[in-house]
Amino acid sequence: MEISKDAKIILLKAARLSIESIFGGEKPLKPDFTIFPELNSNAGAFVTLTIEDKLRGCIGYIQGEGNLFDTVCNAAIQAASSDPRFPSLTKKELEKIEIEISVLGNFLKIKSYEEIEIGKHGLLLDEGGRALLLPQVATEHKMNREEFLTSLCHKAGMYGYFWKERLLNIKTFTAVVFSESESKEDL
Does the structure show a pLDDT above 90 at 23? Predict the structure, then answer.
């Protein structure tokens, strides 16, 4: 999926305004979808929050919640308030968070683990348990393919090397990833 620079800025601002609305701020206004049709598309998206490069929340949707704009707004609120790994974001933390958005591409079922390209593919496992790892997880944690698959199995609640026993029901996907730090001058 192609996303223009201006559409990325709109999504980043909307994500921040959505989080601020938890603390009484105004919710973002919908953009003109005729000018930014990509924001009206139905795509999955994840919003990742960090403070000083440490994860503070990450929630998303494998499939869109209506249009991409609404999906990102909903994911931002959920990342700030409903990630079970963290307490809800506080108003004091609001100015410290960095927002990153990952817009998911199409899912393709793999026929071999060799198809997985580190740095390019995210993984979706749907085999008893369900788990998703964004493409940037592998590169940020300097994982090779085997470590990426092991981490995916752990996240799904399986033992790590379950993937070695047989080909699991795994789909790859790409993502358009962008963050506030990359767009500071435009925000």
Answer: yes
Which of 98, 111, 6, 90 shows the shortest CA–CA distance to 55?
98
Tokens linked to 139: 């590169």
Q: Is the dihedral of CA 168, 174, 149, 155 positive or negative?
A: negative
Q: How far is CA 150 from the centre of its chain?
A: 20
Residue with tokens 């968070």: 97
What is the strand order of the sheet 98-104 is part of? 54-61, 45-51, 98-104, 175-179
Q: In the predicted model, what is the mean pLDDT of the chain?
A: 95
**Single residue among 76, 104, 132 that ends a domain in this structure:** 104
Mean pLDDT of 146-151: 98
Please tell me the pTM assigned to this model: 0.94
- In degrees and rounded to multiples of 5, residue 72 shows phi and psi of -65, -45
Please provide residue 183's backbone torsions phi and psi, each rounded to the nearest 5 degrees: -120, 20
Q: Which domain holds residue 65?
A: 5-104
CA atoms within 13 A on the CB side of 150: 8
Q: What is the CATH number of the domain that holds 124?
A: 3.30.1490.150
Average pLDDT over residues 87-99: 97
179 falls within a domain: no
